[in-house]
Design brief:
The chain has about 160 residues and is mostly helical. The protein contains 6 helices and no strands.
């Protein structure tokens, strides 16, 4: 009969998985409650000349506020609970690769009405459209991985 973890080095990964699971469930519940798993909400937000729906902006502002408080709190800590150090971005450069990737993400989001988080929640809820999006997204990741050696170097210095 297993007695479970016996020291902190064994419990940390288990605790991290538990926190990740709870965080993911909360994120998914928030997406569902706010309606952000429905592509028409996203497309309505992007339709600024027609039937504009500002609800996505309120969700984004709320998320930015929560993240800002969490980041400020984390930056005051000496180190994270279950790691040796924080992994903050090492560069603040805005280069062509970042802009190009952001533009590609935005075009895909605008055309499909999904981004990865809401797509996964919708797939879990049985959405066929989201499954097509998720499969396409996975295919794109596999193509990138297969060609990453040619794409990986930064486009500018």
């Amino acid at each position: 009969m297993s007695q479970g973890p016996t020291d902190a080095s064994e419990t940390a990964p288990l605790a991290m998985r538990g926190v990740a699971l709870i965080s993911g469930l909360m994120f998914g519940a928030g997406l569902l409650m706010s309606g952000m798993t429905r592509p028409e909400k996203v497309i309505g937000f992007l339709d600024v000349t027609g039937a504009w729906d500002p609800s996505l902006a309120f969700v984004m502002v709320g998320a930015i506020a929560v993240y800002s408080l969490a980041a400020m709190t984390a930056r005051r800590q000496i180190r994270p609970c279950w790691a040796d150090s924080f992994h903050w971005p090492s560069t603040l450069n805005v280069d062509a690769r970042l802009v190009g990737g952001s533009a590609l993400f935005g075009v895909g989001w605008g055309l499909a009405g999904y981004c990865p988080g809401p797509a996964l929640v919708s797939i879990g809820a049985g959405s066929v459209d989201a499954a097509w999006f998720g499969g396409s997204m996975l295919l794109g990741m596999l193509v990138y991985r297969a060609t990453g050696s040619t794409i990986d170097p930064p486009l500018t210095d």
